[in-house]
Every structure is written in C-alpha cells, then in structure tokens.
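Ticket 4471: requesting a sanity check on a complex prediction with pyridoxal-5'-phosphate. Repro inputs:
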Amino acid sequence: MIDFRSDTVTQPTQAMRLAMSRAEVGDDVYGDDPTVNELQQMAAQMFGFDAALFTCSGTQANLLALMSHCDRGDEYLCGQQAHNYKFEGGGAAVLGSIQPQPLTNQGDGSILLSDIQAAIKPDDVHFARTRLLSLENTIGGKVLPQSYIAQAQALAFNHGLKIHLDGARVANAAVAQNIAIGDITSHFDSVSICLSKGLCAPVGSLLLGDSRLIAKAIRWRKMLGGGMRQAGILAAAAKLALTEQVERLGEDHANAAYLARALGEIAEFDIDMSLVQTNMVYAKVAAGVDTGALAAELKARGVLISPAATLRLVTHKDVGRADIDKLVLELKSLLRQS
Ligand SMILES: *Cc1c(COP(=O)(O)O)cnc(C)c1O
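Returned structure tokens:
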C-alpha cells in the first residue's frame, strides 16, 4: 500500500533493524541501559539541553513536560489546534489536574502575542495560576517564524512563564529553514521531539529540559507506566533517526511541493501553496465530492488517504515520486468518473 495518511507509518530502515539486533541493553529503570543513555546524552548535546529523556510516545513526552512544569491547579496556554490540547485525550487535565487555556491559532499557526498577554491571569484566588506557554512547530505542516518564537520567548520570560515546544516535527521546521534544530530549541525551557514520524524510528520520542525538569519527568514517567526495561533495542533505532534521517526530510518537503502542484491542477482541489512548507499538503475538496467514497476507491487501487472535507496528505520516506504520480493519476480518473 502507498500510504499518505501520516509520516507515522514509515518503516524503520535496514540500518535501524541491524542496530536494534546488535544493541547493547540493560534495565533502563535502573539507568543501566547504555544505548538509551547514549541516545539521551547525544540528544541533549545536539539540542543544547542539560538532559533528555526517552519516552514511548510524543503524547507521553508532552504530558511529562506539562506535569513537570505545572502543579495541580496551574494552567498552560496553548493553541486551539495544539496537539497537546486537542489530540492527547485531555491528558493534562485528566492526569495532571492542569487547566488548558486554548487560544486561537492564526492562519500561519502562531498565537497572537496580544492574545497570550491577555490570557495570563493575575495573582488572584479566582484564577488558575498561569505557569506555561506551549507552542508547536511545525504546526499543521507550517513553520513558526524564528522572529515570532523569539518574541514569544521574551513575553513568557517577562511574565515569569516557562515555555515548552511541542516539537514533534521540529526537525522538519529546521530543515525547511536550513538551520540547526538547536537554533529553534534554544528558545525553549523544554522540547518534545518525535523520532517515529518522518525520522522513521519504530517507536519513541524525546523530552529535553534542564536536570531538575527531567528528574521530575522521570518520576512521572514511572508513575504513568512508561518506565521501560531493555529499551536500548528501541533507542538504537532512535539514535539513527537523529544521525541519519534529519537531512533526508528535505526530500519529503520537495515531494510535498511536487504533490501540491499536481493536485492544484485538478479542478476539485483548492490548495494554498503558501501553506505547503514541509511534508504536508492540505487540499480543500469541492462540495459534492464524497471523500469517504474516494478514499475507499483509492484503497482498492492500493493508495491510502484519510477522508475529510480538507484532505491532509503527508509525504515521508516510504512514498516517492512514482507513488505521488500514481495517487494523482488515480484521483484524476476517479473524479472524471463521478
Ligand atoms: C504526533 C504528534 C504528537 C504525539 O505523538 P505520538 O507519538 O503519536 O503520541 C505530539 N505533537 C504533535 C504536533 C504531533 O504531530
């Protein structure tokens, strides 16, 4: 199957499978897994933090960050479209007793600084204590401008807030701007990064922060059932995600642009090319097209997409130009028939 639903579907590389089979391992709950320790040290250095923690998912890394920055009755500011608000089961509220304060995301994915400022609660018994600002980069495939991030960092600092980055796809943001990942992450007190999306590791994310934050996160991770034992098997692949897969993301971005241009020539699709910045293409579908039926027909022809009024198509290591050509050809033929 050719799969455009997400970059989470990427298969681990042969090099990853080989590294996994040969990984030196120990009990990571005791801190004894040499491969996990190498991964965490490498990531901390690469992204400019004291410490890093390997987690089983991005959702867990974000939850650990929120629970380590905020206590019960505290609040974090985030976007209405933020993954750690909208797509993580309300974990911060359910498991952390932390109140989310979602704010409107602008078309470019940013949150207006004036909206952030206005949402910071004064010290008053009526209010939750505003502790944290959480941004996301990339967000919906869009890159937050570096100047905006610097302004948000200053605003947070001036109000005594910590600032977290949901950087599930921060490597895409860095590659798209031709800068180091550290140039983005250096603006934040903590960062989560997914290794199992475009970076192709089978499992795992990282949380980065200072030693105190990571020490707290280790406690929460254990409580949440996320303490893994011979996790070096996974960390071996995760190391290669960071050393061998980051530069390759440029191909995914070029392929997304190629796909967007091709879809733009089909009358039923409306694409804003200015939003095609990394590995995602959003195609607004003309009213009257049944995308559920379209997805089913495509599936019968060996291509997977997620049906929606605005389709999200994601490029990654396991879809190439020929696969994109096939998708476009099949779409054209199906839409002609309907
Ligand atoms: C995928 C994703 C996550 C969570 O990752 P999982 O590993 O699926 O839990 C968090 N934030 C963003 C922006 C994501 O895209």
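Notes from triage: The chain has two domains: 7-244, 248-337. Leaving this open until the requester confirms.
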